[in-house]
Design brief:
Strand content: 15-25%
Largest sheet: 8 strands, mixed
Distance between the termini: 18 Å
Shape: flat
């Protein structure tokens, strides 16, 4: 909304304070500043508030607002006096206001940093988390305006409001004065306030998806009178799945005398239905969608699935239509799946919802599936059906203008019917949030992701989200750091999902191979080695092996303490008459099933060739929807907050021969545990046994499970940031230096620091950079060498020659003046004039391995720490590892060990190992620098020479810029694309 001319031109309407939020019950609302145009809305809102709530607000009977009150509560300067409102359908349901005060509690202006705050929420909307959301947003506004604390007076009987303040997580003080509770809140965010905020976000967003997937009633808008068409198809699929709720067909073209369609009530509009509809599936042309949305919103529909196409996938005009669709739906408190969606499915017996174009609802299972592509969704549903796998839920989000993969992760985390989350993503609207949610979800259940559009450099048509410029290899590394199982194809995603859904996690990489084909066993053995597993020599049961022989061999392998997983290979066996028997696979399946059920909990996979019905028989061995085994006592189970493995195979994830890594004496770097529900517990026994038509596919799925299990074991003991760093870091000094370097009118594009400026800033964080001296001529070079002492290095700093020893731009080990003068002459004769080369002189560093350490800020993904060997390994071969900032001691250790050339650092081919602890410390110091100071948008330390004892930073470049916004640290809000 725009301000009226009455408002001060010096404080323009702050439209960046506007936000859509998800409330506790899963509905949405809009928060925005109150303007002078809101007088009638305010009066109407106040009339709907109970006398008791009015009394709690004003400490006295206050039946109506005077004209003076209305003027006061609608006229703000957006600095010292601010009011925010929560709206649904354009009407107020809650308000908050602050007035700046001084130390004596009197009205004041800046630089006074206190404010009095007061809330009022309509009684019908109390308990939905309205006041909590308002507190988050008004606190962010106050901090932006230089206010550091809130004061509030609350009547002792107003328990709801006292709880809002007490549970916010801010540092606070309470006292009882003159019959009221006096509260003072320090508005500086704390780990607790951030954890509370994220816990509320998780519950609200999970609930919003749950409302879509478990409606009590569904209206299909656009169901045609004749068979065929999108709407009629969805209605048919909904009924065929046995939907347990009430279904309605809606089409404005229905004849007035048409009362039923396919056996369900038929209506011309949602308004004609005599009950509130929970979910509407919209299948009408795009130009008629706004009318349908308005009809739904005005009659209390809670959520929408929009199958209609013609939006952002059609270009800029369609993108604007899509934005308006989201704005319209959210204004009524509704969330949207789509547009251009394929639909949603929930197989729970209590729901049995198939509101999609899939002709057959999948079997009930424990895999949750989210896809941004209808075509990929069809392929995945078909592939899972062929493999005998079931689903717990399915969402095909289409253009995902609203509900996204992040929302699906929130829902999957606490959904007790989901053991594995599979996601096909073509864009990441909020990578920071995705990695945070994925890390938390992966700590209790596997998350498998296929990322489409990896190399296009842009988003697919229809995906109106910010484009991240980080390479796909970096995205993959960051996903791995968060525990995400990143695979390349949807086939690999199904393969991994089948193994993870029902088999326990392997305790290690040791694999037993057994079967009746030597050749197939050898192929499996080779595939294991290629994937980094440790296979035992295959056990050949010969082609004469019977199903009982398979059972005995599998029982023996599972009981063997030297193996962590078993792969069974099978081809048609030779019967008593000497002929090959393909059979239907049921006998062999029963044998394998019996062995797996009676042995220790280890993953089992089957590779088969031409054994009819084996995969189906193994898939039917036990339902993937087996009920959960609940713990007998809470004390007997690890908590979700501890990070200990609690998902499928958790019992196998901790074994005596795979101890948890030691925990150094350090300060935790991770935020406080989020206030989220305890996730479901794993099944007591493995269920179905996955079967694969090729050894490579089975081994690749097992390898992903091994890596994921290792991540789970490590995640149970989070990494730390060593305490000694605090003693050698001058954070206030660095902050003051950055303020000075950026200046008061900082260029939004930022500025690169000079060599000396970079040295000073890095030095504040204990990162010494070896000094260099300019050498515009030979005499200056000799003078510089005299100051430094021989031997020295002479090198150019021209951008096209920097770090290019192969082009002759670097001369090392110059032992005396003569050698330096000769090198200077050779350099200028070969490469150009000194003014072009910009030569410098630097003292020699101890011999070691040249590495490069970088940190950069990506607008979408956040701060990223990178490491590699200098030169060809990182620049030509792309052998660079990445981690998100802030990095822990474990992240730093993994970072230097995850590059392919890592053996060079650890004594490759008889060379001396270098000082990797010093390198890890450098990574941690740089991580702290960019995490503490978001103005540091890029740092490159190149080269960093790591010697057997210590390291030397020979070059450094630093760029500063005004800090980019950190949406992940602000108040909760839904994205607007």
């Amino acid at each position: 909304m725009e301000p009226t001319p009455e408002q001060s031109p010096h404080h323009a309407y702050p439209d960046h304070w506007e936000a859509d939020v998800v409330l506790r019950d899963g509905g949405t609302a809009r928060i925005r500043p109150i303007t002078t145009d809101d007088a009638e809305r305010l009066v109407s809102f106040y009339e709907q508030v109970s006398d008791e709530s009015k009394y709690y607000r004003f400490f006295a009977p206050y039946p109506r607002l005077s004209d003076r009150d209305v003027h006061r509560f609608t006229h703000h300067d957006y600095v010292d006096r601010v009011g925010l409102a929560v709206t649904i359908g354009g009407e107020f349901i809650g308000t908050v206001r602050y007035d700046r005060i001084n130390e004596q509690g009197r009205p004041a202006s800046a630089p006074a940093d206190g404010a009095e705050v007061a809330f009022l929420v309509q009684d019908a909307h109390q308990g939905r988390g309205v006041a909590s959301a308002l507190l988050e947003h008004i606190a962010a506004v106050a901090r932006e305006r230089g206010i550091r604390r809130f004061a509030a007076e609350v009547l002792p009987a107003n328990n709801k409001m006292i709880k809002v303040f007490r549970h916010a997580g801010y540092t606070q003080q309470r006292s009882f004065e003159d019959g009221s509770v006096h509260l003072t809140l320090d508005l500086e965010p704390t780990e607790k306030s951030l954890a509370v905020q994220r816990g509320r976000e998780q519950r609200a967003e999970a609930r919003s998806v749950q409302r879509l997937l478990a409606p009590g009633s569904v209206a299909v808008i656009g169901a045609g009178r004749t068979p065929g068409g999108v709407g009629r198809t969805v209605l048919r699929n909904l009924l065929a799945a046995g939907f347990t709720g009430r279904a309605y067909a809606v089409n404005r073209a229905f004849d007035e005398d048409l009362t039923t369609l396919d056996g369900v009530p038929a209506h011309r509009s949602v308004g004609e239905i005599d009950e509130q509809v929970d979910l509407a599936v919209i299948a009408v042309p795009a130009h008629r969608v706004p009318e349908a949305v308005a009809d739904c919103g005005e009659h209390g529909v809670q959520g929408l699935v929009v199958l209609s196409a013609g939006y952002a996938e059609r270009g800029s005009a369609g993108r604007e239509l899509q934005r308006e669709l989201v704005r319209q739906a959210r204004s009524y408190g509704m969330r949207i799946i789509g547009p251009n969606a394929f639909g949603i499915i929930n197989t729970a017996d209590s729901v049995r919802l198939n509101a999609s174009l899939a002709p057959e609802s999948p079997a009930r299972g424990r895999i949750g599936l989210f896809t941004q592509s209808g075509a990929i969704g069809i392929a995945l549903l078909s592939g899972l059906h062929r493999r005998g796998a079931g689903l717990s839920s399915f969402i095909s989000a289409g253009n995902r203008a609203d509900v996204s993969g992040n929302d699906f992760l929130q829902y999957s985390f606490e959904d007790q019917d989901t053991d594995v989350a599979l996601l096909y993503l073509e864009s990441l609207g909020n990578p920071r949030k995705f990695t945070r949610l994925a890390r938390r979800t992966a700590a209790v259940k596997p998350v498998v992701v296929v990322k489409g559009a990896r190399h296009s450099g842009s988003n697919p048509p229809g995906h109106a989200v910010p484009v991240s410029r980080i390479p796909d290899t970096t995205v993959s590394a960051l996903m791995r750091q968060a525990g995400v199982i990143r695979v390349d194809t949807v086939t690999e995603m199904v393969d991994a999902g089948l193994l993870l859904a029902d088999q326990p996690l392997p305790a290690g990489p040791r694999v037993a191979i057994l079967g009746n084909s030597e050749s197939l066993g050898l192929l499996t053995y080779d595939a294991c080695l290629a994937e980094g597993l440790r296979p035992r020599p295959p056990r050949d049961l010969t082609t004469a092996a019977s199903p009982q022989d398979f059972r005995d061999a599998l029982t023996e392998a599972l009981a063997d303490g030297t193996c962590d997983a078993v792969i069974v290979t099978a081809i048609p066996w030779v019967g008593e008459n000497g002929e090959a028997e393909t059979g239907d696979g049921e006998v062999l399946a029963a044998a394998l099933r019996g062995a797996a059920a009676g042995g220790p909990a280890k993953p089992v996979a089957v590779v088969h060739v031409e054994i009819g019905g084996l995969a189906e028989a193994l898939a039917a061995a036990s339902s993937t929807a087996a009920p959960r085994t609940r713990p007998t006592t809470l004390a007997a189970q690890p908590s979700a907050a501890s990070g200990a493995p609690t998902g499928p195979g958790a019992a196998a994830a901790q074994t005596p021969d795979t101890p948890a890594p030691p925990t150094p004496s350090a300060t935790p770097a991770d935020p406080a545990p989020e206030a989220a529900p305890e996730p479901p517990q794993p099944p007591a026994r493995p269920g179905r046994i996955p079967a694969y038509p090729a050894a490579e596919r089975a081994v690749r799925a097992l390898a992903e499970a091994v890596k994921y299990a290792q991540w789970r074991r490590q995640a149970a003991t989070p990494g730390k940031v060593p305490e000694f760093l605090d003693e050698t870091i001058d954070e206030p000094g660095a902050a003051a230096l950055i303020d000075t370097l950026l200046g008061t009118a900082a260029d939004p594009r930022g500025r690169a620091l000079t060599h000396d400026e970079a040295r000073e800033l890095l030095g504040r964080y204990g990162i010494p950079v070896r000094p260099t001296f300019p050498a515009p001529d030979a005499e200056a070079a000799v003078a510089a060498a005299a100051r430094l002492g021989y031997p020295v290095a002479l090198k150019t700093t021209a951008p096209h020659l920097r770090h290019r020893a192969d082009l002759g731009g670097v001369r090392l080990d110059l032992a005396d003046e003569d050698a330096l003068r000769r090198a200077y002459g050779d350099l200028t004769d070969l490469l150009g004039k000194p003014a072009e080369l910009l030569p410098v002189v630097q003292s020699m560093a101890p011999r070691g391995v040249d590495t490069v350490v970088r940190a950069s800020i990506d607008a979408a993904a956040g701060a990223i720490l990178s490491f590699g060997l200098a030169g060809a390994p990182s620049e030509l071969l792309g052998d660079t590892a990445h981690r998100l900032v802030p990095a822990t001691d474990r992240d730093a250790a993994e970072l230097i060990r995850s590059i392919k050339a890592a053996p060079v650092l650890f004594g490759w081919r008889g060379s001396a190992p270098v000082d990797t602890p010093a390198l890890e410390e450098l990574l941690l110091r740089l991580s702290r620098l960019v995490d503490d100071h978001p103005e540091v948008v890029s740092v490159a330390l190149e080269p960093v020479v790591v010697a057997p004892h210590g390291l030397t930073v020979l070059g450094a470049s630093v760029r500063l810029a005004p800090p980019p916004p950190r949406g992940d640290l602000g108040p909760r809000r839904l994205p607007n694309y």
